[in-house]
């Protein structure tokens, strides 16, 4: 069971998502306050989140495309406030630019250096982080997003597309991610190995075998350093 390549989730695996989104939503609201003040007054940050959730319920087909979901939400907000709907795209750009300003977890850069020295790395994400803008391009061979795949994790098809992009069979690839349902259950259903990243302090520095997993390498890890230690020791 030689692992030739790794697929990695991004949000809450390589950086904390919540502070990233909060900064991006604030940047978008500030842009709206300057360029579409009626929309900013009608839809504060919390109200815009509620509108986006409502749009998502009405348009379940956008579940795999978070960027388009935000664009549609912005269009509705601008129209409701009487502002120019053409402002939706630059308003989204303000969000998107700030959304790429991520802060890696402490061990990530060193661990990716080590992992990329022996394995091809591919990002597999339901989100809309950009490899170049986040500074990940130097480690990753590419990415497969839910938007590109047309389906979101845990659908096995996104993992199979990732394996095809890596030119690897699923049993030669390990997926690493923090979300058990989306990342781990999905990867296993697609035939990949898995490493469930749980950043609780008691797990940092050691690796555990997942007792409920099928045959193969299915680990529970506290950070990426312990994953690099294990893979590079093999």
Kindly provide the radius of gyration, computed on alpha-carbon positions and rounded to a whole number of angstroms. Answer: 19 Å
Number of strands: 7
Total helical segments = 11
How are the strands of the largest sheet arranged? Answer: 3-2-1-4-5-7-6
Classify the secondary structure makeup into a structural class. alpha/beta
Largest sheet, if any? 7 strands, mixed
Helix content: 40-55%
What is the general shape? Answer: elongated
Q: Which range does the strand content fall in?
A: 5-15%
* Topology as a string of helices (H) and strands (E): EHHHHHHEHEHHEHEEEH
Report, as a whole number of angstroms, the end-to-end distance.
Answer: 11 Å
- Whole-number mean pLDDT: 95
Uncertain stretches of 5 or more adjacent residues? none
Per-chain topology:
Elements lengths: L4 E4 L8 H19 L1 H6 L2 H14 L7 H16 L6 H12 L8 H9 L3 E6 L5 H4 L7 E4 H4 L6 H11 L6 E5 L2 H10 L3 E5 L9 E3 L8 E4 L2 H10 L1
Parallel strand pairs: 1-2, 1-4, 2-3, 4-5, 5-7
Antiparallel strand pairs: 6-7
Helix pairs in contact: 1-5, 3-4, 4-5, 6-11
Outline of the structure:
This protein has 234 residues and is α/β, with parallel strands linked by helices.
Fold and architecture overview:
With 234 residues, this protein is α/β, with parallel strands linked by helices. It has 11 helices and 7 strands. The chain has a 7-stranded mixed beta sheet, with helices on both faces. α3 (45-58) packs across α4 (66-81) and α6 runs parallel beside α11. The mean pLDDT is 95.
Features:
single chain; 234 residues; alpha/beta; seven-stranded mixed sheet; 7 strands; 13% strand
């Amino acid at each position: 069971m030689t692992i030739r390549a790794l697929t990695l989730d991004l949000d809450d695996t390589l950086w904390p998502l919540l502070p990233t989104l909060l900064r991006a939503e604030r940047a978008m609201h500030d842009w709206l306050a300057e360029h579409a003040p009626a929309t900013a007054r009608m839809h504060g940050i919390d109200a815009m989140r509620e509108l986006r959730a409502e749009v998502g319920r009405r348009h379940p087909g956008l579940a795999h495309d978070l960027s388009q979901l935000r664009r549609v939400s912005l269009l509705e907000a601008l129209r409701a406030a009487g502002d120019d709907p053409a402002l939706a795209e630059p308003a989204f750009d303000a969000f998107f630019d700030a959304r790429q300003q991520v802060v890696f977890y402490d061990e990530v850069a060193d661990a990716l250096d080590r992992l990329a020295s022996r394995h091809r790395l591919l990002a597999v994400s339901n989100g809309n982080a950009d490899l170049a803008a986040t500074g990940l391009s130097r480690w990753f061979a590419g990415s497969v997003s839910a938007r590109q795949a047309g389906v979101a994790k845990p659908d096995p098809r996104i993992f199979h597309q990732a394996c095809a992009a890596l030119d690897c069979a699923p049993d030669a690839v390990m997926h690493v991610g923090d979300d058990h349902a989306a990342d781990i259950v999905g990867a296993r259903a697609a035939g990949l190995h898995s490493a469930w990243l749980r950043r609780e302090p008691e797990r940092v520095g050691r690796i555990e075998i997942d007792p409920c997993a099928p045959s193969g390498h299915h680990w529970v890890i506290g950070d990426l350093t312990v994953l690099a230690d294990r893979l590079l020791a093999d």
